[in-house]
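Task: complex structure prediction.
Instruction: return structure tokens for all chains below.
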Amino acid sequence: MTLLEAFGGPEMVDRVIDRFGEYVEGDPAMRAIYPEDMAPGQRKVKLFFEQWMGGGPVYSNLYGHPRLRRRHFPFVIDDLAVGRWLRYMRQAMADEGVSSEVQAVIFEAFAPLARHMHNAGEDIPRDPLCDAVLQ
Ligand code: HEM
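Output:
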């Protein structure tokens, strides 16, 4: 059984990321970090999650290697944002009924990954990474 199956499949990923988006929409500090139209980014996050949890490589076939830290450079991510991202993702999974065992596995990986995304105050390029598949 893949983690994706234990999670509840792509339908559950859809519901959790939509719910996460509602938390972001309701938090002005977080909402300010995201672009005006959140829909394209939300679709990419869904595809990435499905791939990360053992679904097919649809994300990478479309966008190449995730290069997650680099893809977040255009968005200034500080300690508050790291904490809230984790909190809202946890709440979204709990709201939608992802089991606590599956949540434990996911957050063991997501907690360090979210901290790794911190980039506030760093001298890094802030231009977006091109979406083209990297050959
Ligand atoms: C730590 C706090 C984080 C913040 C504030 C944050 C914020 C953002 C923002 C603003 C975007 C751009 C959305 C758009 O273009 O519409 C984004 C994209 C994305 N985020 Fe995060 N993120 C965080 C952590 C993470 C983590 C830990 C993961 C993975 C587990 C992740 C996965 C993604 C993915 C896959 C994308 C789409 C990247 C692309 O293909 O362009 N993010 N995030």
